[in-house]
Amino acid sequence: MRIGELAALVGVSTRTVRHYHHQGLLPEPERLANGYREYRLRDAVALARIRRLTELGLSLDEIRDVLADDRGRELREVLQELDADLARQQEAIAARRERLAALLAEPDVHPDAAVSPAMAAVLRDLPPDGGTAIGRLDRELMMMIDTGAADGDRSAYAELLQPLTAPGMAERGAGLYARLDELADADPGDPRVAETAREMADYIPGEMAAVMITSLEDPATGGWLAEMSQEMTSAQAEAFRLLIRTLRARAREGLPPGERADDGRADDGGT
Q1: Which residues contact 33 (CB under 8 A, 6 or more apart)?
Q2: Of 25, 57, 86, 177, which is most buried with the most CB atoms under 10 A?
Q3: Concatenated DSSP letters for 110-156?
Q4: Quick one: pLDDT at residue 71?
Q5: Among 11, 84, 5, 86, which residue's Cα sits nearest to residue 49?
Q6: In this model, does residue 264 exceed pLDDT 70?
């Protein structure tokens, strides 16, 4: 048989046959005096076996290992691993379809709704942005963190935000958005800046405050405050700087969430 006849017999292209030769999966047949390859039935059997294994989902490297073991023990092990991989893929697909079904059930599907289910549940109970620039920025950052995090970290992050969904917290959060928005044209020394910072410190749960402080000390995540400040006015950025000072002061004194200390007025805390 010529290469075209072999390919047609097994149901692949001649290019595929040449590729398998190049990868060392299919041995090169003897060549006739005129230089043409002469394929025999055993070549067709080998090629058909390779095709069957690729259809099962094995990679070419895995097929090479299988073909190297005539007793088939390697094949059983590889097939078991493949079956486990397919089972994990099925679970992932089922989870994605469940999330899609939830999105399609929404009356108004927005691109920002495509976050993890845990984050979507939290966002439904968090305060709306109220049309404020700070509110929109805050929600956008939450969605960005959720998108970039691994699955386990997404759940942990959503759980960290859960206390903000407690009764009364949404109203407090919306009020803070409004007050920060009012600072857009203020001077950084405006008394409202320090008062807003203290109100934010009272609003933020203790575990979240600890994570915020710790993240600023991590070189990999420590730039978030500076990045946020670039999106805010000088007075709004000062409010967040004072917020971090206050949280650090309360952490040093071991105060519970919402209880005021000296608010760190004597210490910049490196912020």
Answers
A1: none
A2: 177
A3: -GGG-S-HHHHHHHHHSPP-TT-HHHHHHHHHHHHHHHHS-HHHHHH
A4: 52
A5: 11
A6: no
